[in-house]
Amino acid sequence: MVYAYPRVSIEFCTQCKWNLRAAWYMQELLSTFGNGLGEVALLPSSAGTFIVTIIPEQDATPIVLWNRKDKGGFPDSKELKQLVRDVIQPNRDLGHVDKHNKNEKKTPTQEPHIESKADQEDDDACPNIN
Predict the structure, then answer these.
(1) Using CA atoms, how far apart are residues 57 and 53, in angstroms rounded to an integer?
(2) Which Pfam families does the entry link to (predicted)?
(3) Which of 37, 71, 81, 123 could form a disulfide with 48 if both were Cys (CB 3.0 to 4.6 A apart)?
(4) How far apart are CA 11 and CA 50, in angstroms?
(5) pLDDT in tens, 44-99
(6) Is the bond preceding 6 in cis, omega lying within 30 degrees of 0?
(7) What is the per-residue pLDDT across 41-58, written as a single tens digit (0 to 9) for each?
(8) CB 123, CB 47: distance < 8 Å
(9) Which domains does the chain have, with CATH numbers?
(10) What's the Rg (C-alpha) of the chain?
């Protein structure tokens, strides 16, 4: 089998019902990068998993862009697009996605946005964790 690169995978917990969230992120990435991505794969998983990984080229080490357990929630679509862009096309301007408030300068150390209390649920929320 021949793969096209870069390859993005979105691994998500089906018991937590994150199917639509994963599909929405996939749609956002494909809308933004189009043929600049070789593949966006949805990988059903369990145990409260939500991990976005990218392999920029053949034989490259996979890069974890987002892990819900490490980051404490989910990324904004804007944030995910910037993370993907920074790996595959670092000089690309994402237009409105890159626009910031004149007085605000985003830094990589800024805390991630937490969308809601439901997004902050720990692994106990997954019905199939032993």
Answers:
(1) 13
(2) Rdx
(3) 123
(4) 5
(5) 999 999 999 999 999 999 999 999 999 999 999 999 999 999 999 999 888 877 77
(6) yes
(7) 999 999 999 999 999 999
(8) yes
(9) 7-125 (3.40.30.10)
(10) 15
